[in-house]
């Protein structure tokens, strides 16, 4: 595929939740959520509706015209607005309090139950073990790939050898 074909797939099939949010501070929450939809060629009325629904899903439905002060939730809404088949989430709870973090994880679990593939990148083992499958990397190598419920999925510190045992 050429670059344009790859970009079309990214815009239509993938939703990204970035660790650094990548929101535009001069735009409203709704406008920020609509940016990837605009690049995907979605008509303005549909962009407005999708962004409103996505912001409601993350608890920001009453703040459409606000600037993005709740960046993590806004970033999550932006990823969901395109109704992607695959959601790539890089530390989606990293900057959240525990209550809001649980809400975000519940939302991602509901999306998975509805048929979406959710790939969650995290350093927090308590979050990782809530997944069905864990793929643990160390120094660029897969050191564990399996069921999150298996005893060997739990990370234990090993200060004498490798940094983590899996």
Which key terms come to mind for this protein?
166 residues, alpha/beta, three-stranded parallel sheet, two-stranded antiparallel ribbon, 6 helices, globular
Structure description:
The chain is an alpha/beta fold. The chain is 40% helix and 19% strand. The protein is built from six helices and seven strands. It has helices at residues 3-13, 29-39, 44-57, 71-81, 98-113, 125-128; strands at residues 14-17, 86-90, 117-121, 133-138, 141-147, 156-157, 164-165. Strands 1-2-3 form a three-stranded parallel sheet. Strands 4-5 form a two-stranded antiparallel sheet. The protein is globular.
Element layout with pairings:
Layout: H1 3-13, E1 14-17, H2 29-39, H3 44-57, H4 71-81, E2 86-90, H5 98-113, E3 117-121, H6 125-128, E4 133-138, E5 141-147, E6 156-157, E7 164-165
Parallel strand pairs: 1-2, 2-3
Antiparallel strand pairs: 4-5, 6-7
Helix pairs in contact: 2-3, 2-4, 3-4
Order of helices and strands: HEHHHEHEHEEEE
Strand content: 15-25%
Low-confidence stretches: none
Estimate the global geometry from the Cα principal axes: globular
Give the count of helical stretches.
Answer: 6
Biggest beta sheet attributes: 3 strands, parallel
Helix content: 40-55%
Structural category: alpha/beta
Order of strands in the sheet with most strands: 1-2-3
Which value, in Å, is the CA radius of gyration? 17 Å
Report how far the terminal alpha carbons are from each other: 37 Å
- Provide the residue-averaged pLDDT: 82
Counted beta strands? 7
